Amino acid sequence: MYPDLLQIGNLTIHSFGVMLVLAVLTAIFLLYREAPGANVNPDLLLEAILLTLFFGLVGSRLLFIAFNWTFFSEGFPVSLFSRFEGLSFFGGIVAGVLALYFWSRKRKVSFLKIGDLLAPYLMLGYAIGRVGCFLSGCCYGTESSLPWALPSQAGEAVLRHPVQLYTAIGALLIFLALKKAKTKRPFIGFILIAMLALYGLLRFVTDFFRYGHPVWLGLSATQLASLCLILLTAGLLTAYFYLLPENERPSFKLPRLIKKKKLRSGRKFR
Questions:
Q1: Which helix (H) or strand (E) holds 11?
Q2: Coil, strand or helix at 52
Q3: Which of 195, 139, 136 is nearest to 166 (CA)?
Q4: Residue 99's CB: how many other CB atoms inside 10 A?
Q5: Cis before residue 77, ω within 30 degrees of 0?
Q6: Residues 72-88: pLDDT tens digits?
Q7: How many Å apart are CA 255 and CA 172, to the nearest integer?
Q8: Are 182 and 193 contacting, i.e. CB atoms less than 8 angstroms apart?
Q9: Considering just the CA atoms, what is the radius of gyration of the chain in Å?
């Protein structure tokens, strides 16, 4: 759509890069403000964010290269840097979570507590980043005749699902849901696990509208990875809720739909 926002001499400002920087700065700003209320040292949290971000970018780049090895194998390893386009969010999640885990062990802080704090803002940053994909014209959808279908590139006659915006809206809804659930989480680490599960579900659904090549049973590699992520998080939740002794399991109180009312005689409905 608008891959290049600004041209200054030989320097080109790309829309995806701008949105990626905006996503990072927004998440850092909001997390830094929230840290004191969560009894977390803001400077320590900033260290965790930067470390997770660095290894997340490395992991996302390496997984993208692995999926597109035919393209990058020519002129390797120089091609890794001369052709710097493409990131895989799944690779970023895996590398980022592992980096956060080992960092938390070294710093002797709760991995699950920090993970719960970071998880919602990861989805917020992801939503902003997907807007960058839309502006850049990458990660486009399949052909569509729906009223809101758009071309992936300026001047293209083919109309496609704006799947980047579908994903961005879904990620924003996940962010809002996680923020709402944070005060009512049944255990520390629940928000992190819920984020992984909801992200996997989001990618599994939206990839049906994304242009790509199925690899097994009509599903893309991302959808298969999403199913694995959903099963993993479901297993973690099952293990927590059902392997604990019954008296240690967290309880959920359903909202009362009918309130008890007093009669004039002083009796109550039952």
A1: strand 11-14
A2: helix
A3: 139
A4: 19
A5: yes
A6: 667 666 555 555 567 78
A7: 26
A8: no
A9: 22
Phi, psi of 142, rounded to the nearest 5 degrees: -75, 165
CA terminus-to-terminus distance, the chain: 62
Distance in angstroms (rounded) separating the CA atoms of residues 249 and 146: 47
The domain spans of the chain are 4-248
Write the CA distances from 177 to 161, 180, 183, 199, integer angstroms: 25, 5, 11, 12
pLDDT along the chain (270 residues), means of 10: 75 83 92 88 90 89 78 64 67 90 91 92 92 85 87 79 93 94 85 93 92 86 90 86 62 50 46
pLDDT at position 142 is 87
Place of tokens 């300026």: 154
Count the helix, strand and coil residues of the chain and give each as a percent rounded to the nearest 5. Answer: 65, 5, 30
Give the DSSP letter of residue 219: B
Separation between Cα atoms, residue 170 and residue 210, nearest integer Å: 14
Question: In the structure encoding, which two tokens stand for residue 88, read together?
Answer: 């895989």
3-class DSSP state for residue 10? coil
Give the Å distances, CA to CA, from 168 to 23, 119, 172: 12, 16, 6
CA angle 171, 176, 180 (to 5 degrees): 145
Q: What does the pLDDT read at residue 64?
A: 79
Q: Are 199 and 172 in contact (CB under 8 A)?
A: no
**Nearest residue to 210 via CA among 169, 152, 154:** 152
pLDDT of residue 267: 47
Q: Are 109 and 100 in contact (CB under 8 A)?
A: no
What does residue 99 show for φ and ψ, rounded to 5 degrees?
-65, -40
Please say whether the beta carbons of 4 and 13 come within 8 A.
yes
CA angle 239, 116, 233 (to 5 degrees): 30
